[in-house]
Amino acid sequence: MALKFAKLTRDAVRRLERGRKIHEHGIIAKREHDGDVRFSVNFMVDGARIHRVVGRESEGVTRNQAEQLVEKLRTDARAERLALPQGRKLHRRFDQASAEYLEKMNEIGGKDLANKRRHLSSYLIPHFGSDRLDQLTAFALQRYRKARRDNGASDATVNRELATFLHLMNRAIEWKWIKAEQKPKIPRVPEQRKARRALSPAQAQALYDGALADHDPRLWLFVLIGLGTGMRHGEILCRRYDEIDWERSRFEIGKAKAGARLQPFPASVRQGLLRQRAMEDDQDGWLFPAGRKDCKRPHRTAMDDGFRRAVIRAGLDPAKVTPHLMRHTLVTNLSETTDVATIQKISGHKTAAMVMHYTHVNDERIDNALSVMEARTLGGITPKLHTSFNVA
User: Fold this and answer.
1) Which of 3, 168, 280, 336 has the greatest count of CB atoms below 10 A from its CB?
2) Mind listing the pLDDT tens digit for each residue in 40-68?
3) CA distance 44 to 70
4) What is the pTM of this model?
């Protein structure tokens, strides 16, 4: 139905004085100082304000064309709403989607939620704010990276923040908030690799001794398994005795970061496990059972406080020595003597490329490799002199 105008009539526009304007139904007519009339629109559509100049009377623009533009923009908005999920009237803004994402991830026990929440609340939401989730582009993400770098953030830091953005977008597709083709390409840049730290044998022994002397009766076992297997912090804490293959010295890990696997452990860890199991009331239960009955999980979820005490007792720096450093230490030591495929089986890394970060090839190892090549491949070949000849 056509709009009815009480104020913005053709006669009222003709009588407009210079510098004055009339506003009605989102359409504005203003008499400029040069006597020309400029038509513009300013109205809300689906929670977003649209402010646009239509044109001047001297260019042939009339109020009727401004009406047509308003109707077209509203029709386009209605058409877009037809593609929305059932029950929604508006497209999700980034800040709305972020809040829903964090709520859902908390309900299902998502990992690393503290960092995801920090990335979103401190950096991503302030930047993208009310932008529509389905209209974010690779260019917008490149602008975000530049803005963060201008504020002093490193490439590695921005990569972590964009990894949170990527996880949100993947879940948005899974939950049918957006279509797969609406996810922008995430711009990533290579990071400068830091040298991998590792504990020396003396430091590892001091750490174990420090754990053994702690008042927590299971801290020593946590450190023993960490140093002996290189398992992740969380993987160690959710192990049970009834999933151990004692004959083959393997943990049967059904769920882990890179999928199910058999985790081997050395004789020292086997002895420690048998020692602790002999003292358990439930010899098929958790290695690290929860301390209280009202805990959310039946096993411990962190050993950070006890580990820190052991680190300090060992005379090491708690800012540098974390539980994950035990994993670095094992993989680094294995890389000196063991092939990448075997290390990957032991460490549970998802790809061989991740294991290669720990491998440091020095000149001595290259010379040893050349000796093997000489002995096994070229040892039976006798060099002969070649005489030159002319090609006819």
Assistant:
1) 168
2) 988 887 666 788 888 898 888 888 888 88
3) 10
4) 0.53
